[in-house]
Design brief:
Low-confidence stretches: 1-40, 47-52
Mean pLDDT: 86
Shape: globular
Largest sheet: 5 strands, mixed
Strand order of the largest sheet: 1-25-24-23-22
Number of strands: 25
């Protein structure tokens, strides 16, 4: 699926979710619970200076698929249809990390200089399509195939230590690894999924966003429990007591109980392309390469990167 296709799919989730909620309400089990309806009293997204007192530029980026922050140098990482970009603290422009123009549909930061990615080879590449799981230990300067080359396209990719989760866009399967992505087990999802978040305090616990709402697992995807059939969106889990979700309209909601109930806290003002967090900041991308950041848990947002 192209970046544009992924964005269109997500933008259409609001009506799909309402239909799915009605279907689930008719066949749900006693363990399913609805999330508390979010408040509508939320502040709007803001445009302004970054923490470095400037808005950085980015050129040549059309679709952003993943966001992260390197915990060592605190560089903002932008995984895009056109490759991986890096914005060091205080820099005026985000630049390509390497000469690779691979389409990084899935991306996650594992640790300092350690990243995982998936997607499609860029123009002129002789690598098989899809890329399977690619790994970098030098801050994205070089990439090595770790597994699933030519077999899986992990549009959703999350990691916590050696525990790695991926959703294969071709099969829709949830793939789970306990050895850093070198070997995998396949798990059954409760509904077609488009995002997931892993608890910062427990790599076995995850919340998955599906076309049928939110579900949680406490055993790395072996068993599932319904959280909310009428709420879904892109997810990030920056700290144990705060799970964040942004819906298809750009409304940002926070949960302090792992997804049982959400409260609306802010808005990014447009449909999201990517959602992430790291080093005390929450990150969101909207169309055309615009990247926003929040330092107060999603209440207020500042433009940090804009198209050149």
């Amino acid at each position: 699926m192209t970046g544009a296709g992924r964005a269109r799919k997500f933008a259409s989730l609001a009506p799909v979710t309402l239909l799915a909620a009605a279907a689930i309400a008719g066949c749900g089990n006693d363990d399913d619970r609805q999330a508390t309806a979010p408040s509508s009293d939320i502040p709007a997204a803001t445009q302004g200076d970054s923490p470095a007192n400037q808005v950085a530029k980015i050129s040549g980026v059309v679709h952003v698929h993943g966001l992260g922050i390197d915990p060592a140098g605190r560089e903002l990482l932008i995984a895009a249809h056109e490759g991986l970009y890096k914005l060091p603290v205080g820099a005026a422009e985000a630049e390509p990390v390497s000469g690779s123009s691979n389409d990084f549909m899935g991306f996650t930061v594992v640790g300092a200089g350690s990243y995982l990615a998936s997607g499609h080879p860029g123009p002129g590449s002789d690598q098989p399509n899809p890329l399977g799981l690619q790994a970098s230990s030098d801050g994205g300067a070089s990439w090595q195939s770790r597994s699933l080359l030519g077999e899986a396209d992990l549009h959703v990719l999350r990691a916590s230590g050696n525990r790695v989760y991926g959703v294969d866009s071709a099969s829709g399967a949830l793939l789970v690894s306990s050895d850093g992505g070198r070997s995998w087990q396949q798990r059954e999802l409760p509904a077609p999924a488009f995002d997931l978040a892993v608890s910062p305090g427990d790599p076995e616990r995850l919340v998955v966003a599906t076309q049928g709402g939110l579900f949680e697992s406490d055993d790395a995807g072996m068993n599932w429990r319904g959280l909310a059939a009428d709420a879904t969106g892109l997810l990030t889990w920056p700290e144990p007591g705060k799970l964040l979700m942004v819906d298809a309209s750009g409304n940002v909601m926070a949960s302090s109980d792992g997804g049982e109930a959400f409260k609306a806290v802010g808005t990014i003002g447009a449909p999201p392309e990517a959602f992430g967090s790291g080093n005390g900041r929450v990150l969101a991308a909207v169309g055309g390469g615009l990247v926003l950041a929040s330092t107060d848990g999603g209440m207020n947002w500042t433009t940090v990167v804009e198209p050149e």
